[in-house]
Amino acid sequence: MPIVLRTVKQVRQWRSALCQAQKSVGFVPTMGALHHGHLSLVHQSQADNDATVVSIFVNPSQFGPTEDLDAYPRTLDDDLAQLEAANVEAVFVPKVSEMYPSGIVLDVNEQRGAFVEVKGCSHQLEGVTRPQFFRGVATVVCKLLNVVQPTRVYFGQKDAQQCVVVRNMVKDLLIDTEVKVLPTQREPSGLALSSRNAYLSDTTKDESKAIYQALSQGKQLWVDDATVKGTDIVDLVQKQLVDSGLQVEYVACSHPETLDDLTDKVVPGAIVSTAVHVPRAQGTGTARLIDNVILE
């Protein structure tokens, strides 16, 4: 069983012992509801480092007042069992009060305390409809990196904008941690693995394979003609998604470092991304799914 650390003090004591032994530490931050995508990050961390720690913390500051904080899947016992099977050394499972000693409410206007905002790459794409999201992500990741002080930290490419935000934050705040981004893990159909897939029926999961298929067609357009415009790629992906009956929130072709829209010339490494809404298996409303491909 991995060591379960509940407080910042406990994590720092654990890390200090490894530091004195000159051992490297890999860190995988998660919100729990673990799947094979998370475990692929864990396995890479174990290959790269002497020890690995995983955090499980559903971060309230990245949810808006009307979003699914209460409904977000929480499966701690199963998560710990998976991490035990993976031979993870330690798991950090803090309470909200541990991570937000000044308290936290969902309304940004009523929040008190210190927060981190990464200008220039947080307002577009996901940030259009979720303006508080990357402020919350940057804040909690900065706190976690400050606590764990890992040699390397691991993220999945599915959350492409998050990866850009974290890379820029680590660079600008001079944090001594290497950020490693690993390929998106997918179901056999191509659907990106996500904790929110738990909201979907088998039928909706099957229909949602159209997301990756559309993105792949957009990538193929660039592979066949590297002079193609970004707007042409976006138009093709948008059409394929709509024709598949999906409710599209956005499709974008973005610069890999700045996330600026690439409407004309497309640079290698560009990110073609989308967010769509699909029906939930139970109750009313929709689940929001994101995915992307890299033009390389």
How is this fold's topology laid out?
Elements: E1 3-5, H1 8-20, E2 25-30, H2 36-48, E3 51-56, H3 76-85, E4 90-92, H4 96-99, H5 126-129, H6 133-148, E5 152-156, H7 160-172, E6 178-182, H8 202-207, H9 209-224, H10 230-243, E7 247-254, E8 271-279, E9 286-294
Parallel strand pairs: 1-4, 2-3, 2-5, 3-4, 5-6
Antiparallel strand pairs: 7-8, 8-9
Q: Could you describe the 3D structure shown?
A:
The structure is a single chain. The model has no long low-confidence stretch (mean pLDDT 95). The chain folds into two domains: 3-182, Rossmann fold, CATH 3.40.50; 195-295, Pantoate--beta-alanine Ligase, Chain: A,domain 2. It is globular and about 55 Å long. The termini are far apart. A six-stranded parallel sheet has the order 1-4-3-2-5-6, with helices on both faces. Strands 7-8-9 form a three-stranded antiparallel sheet. With 296 residues, it is α/β, with parallel strands linked by helices. Helix 6 (133-148) packs across helix 7 and helix 9 (209-224) packs antiparallel against helix 10 (230-243). The chain has helices spanning 8-20, 36-48, 76-85, 96-99, 126-129, 133-148, 160-172, 202-207, 209-224, 230-243, and strands at residues 3-5, 25-30, 51-56, 90-92, 152-156, 178-182, 247-254, 271-279, 286-294. Pathway: Cofactor biosynthesis; (R)-pantothenate biosynthesis; (R)-pantothenate from (R)-pantoate and beta-alanine: step 1/1. This is Pantoate--beta-alanine ligase. It catalyses: (R)-pantoate + beta-alanine + ATP = (R)-pantothenate + AMP + diphosphate + H(+). Its EC number is 6.3.2.1.
